[in-house]
Amino acid sequence: MRLGVDFGTTHTVVTMVDRGNYPVVGFEGGDPLPSLAAVLPSGELRFGFEAAAVRHEPGVSVLRSFKRLLADAGPRTEIEAGSRSVLLLDLLAGFLAQVREDLLARSNAGIGEAEPLEAAVSVPANSSSAQRFLTLEAFRAAGWAPVALLNEPSAAGFEYAHRFRSTITSRREHVLVYDLGGGTFDASLVRMTGRTNEVVTSEGVRRLGGDDFDEAILRAVLARAGAGEPDEGTRDLLLEECARQKEAVGPNTRKLVLDLSPLDLPPVALPIEEAYEACAPLVERTIEASEPVLAAAGVEESELAGVYVVGGAGAFPLVGRRLRERFGERRVKRSPHPFAATAVGLALFLDGEAGYTLADRLTRHFGVFREAAAGEEVVFDPIFPKDLALPSPGEAPLVAVRRYRAAHDLGHFRFVECSRIVDGRPDGDVAPWQDLRFPFSAALRGRRLDGAAVSRLPEPGPEVEEVYSCSDAGAVSVTIRVPADGFSRTFRLGRPAL
Fold first, then answer.
1. Residues near 441 by Cβ (< 8 Å), separated by ≥ 6?
2. How many whole angstroms separate alpha carbon 358 and alpha carbon 361?
3. Percentage of residues of the chain with pLDDT beyond 70
4. Does the pLDDT value for residue 375 go beyond 60?
5. Residue 494's pLDDT is what?
6. Dihedral-angle region of residue 30 (phi above 0 means left; psi in -120 to 50 means alpha; beta otherwise)
7. Considering only CA atoms, which of 76, 1, 94, 89 is closest in space to residue 39?
């Protein structure tokens, strides 16, 4: 069975490839499936609908929006889950295993127990290499067979091409995909020619989404009610109420009536314009983040076939209002199913008979700091630059090679990922990755090198070769080798554990 799986900050959506159709899978207990974990007083973890069923019971700790934690995570990152610590990778794998179990036993998909689940999965466009790696590893550990990993706006672009192909012409072949989810915002410019979608460039804000809208509305509600800051448990209940009311807002909504019983207060009516005013700065940040996408590609607004609004938070009416004011009434289009647009696009991508292909690009610069001028200076070496075209799924990875003569007994590699480079230096959203140490000198091999000092050799050392590999998913690894004696090590690169 081929499936599109959009693991979202607040909900997870699964779609199927079914003879040219791409239905959203329905689950017993509700739709869509909540991206939720709960820790019982005993330390037992529950996920999805089972977590939602016990979230209000005494002593239960609830973990919401744990996808957001991946933005700053490494393979060994641990989080506090109630009375216990758990690897974030294990938490995610446990959740995805529950999704798989629910898909087989509690859905309308009709999938057999022994049938392999081939899945196209997605990550925010602005995800780090570590987040991509962790996502794929968690799916594999949970019993899925991930066959492709796409950026969420790239996948949504397929859904646009499927629904609005008639808007694309030789003069207007670019679509700005505006993807506002529960925890992240991405804007991608996609060029659509025939049935090929080429991602030209992407920008994003890794911590801006529907969760932040809920926080803004809660602050407005507390101010109107004259209430102080609630404790953590009460705050969670109130945020849940704000999210429920926000998701029910329509074009004709005049006020939000929120239940404040957790504060022992009567309901409060928040005029919709006050809710919009509270959320307006967040919407403006998304528009500001979208502007550089067009500028970087040199695309005029007149060349846009459309601005496509996807993601659950994109359904909030203020978003559409501001985008129409900015880009024009006719140009802005919203997915009929904003929660499911990415998942439908993933299924379309997997359907060979649909004939869609993707030319995606690296969304962040990746490189390493190196010594220069005999150790007197430090320079940044961009190994894989942003907007570099990625290989298609199944194709050979991108490869970059560095060769040099070692000047020290020990190589200390300081890898960095960033959103832009200014005057040869990492700038913007800079994410330090783990430091690696590699023994150029044979005398250091077999020793612990953490914290080891680096010493300059009295004369040029052995030749060193670094071979970097970037997969179709944007995950990076490096093999460092001393050809003279054949010693080598391979590292999967990402952020350190926090």
1. 409, 410, 457, 461
2. 10
3. 97
4. no
5. 66
6. left
7. 94
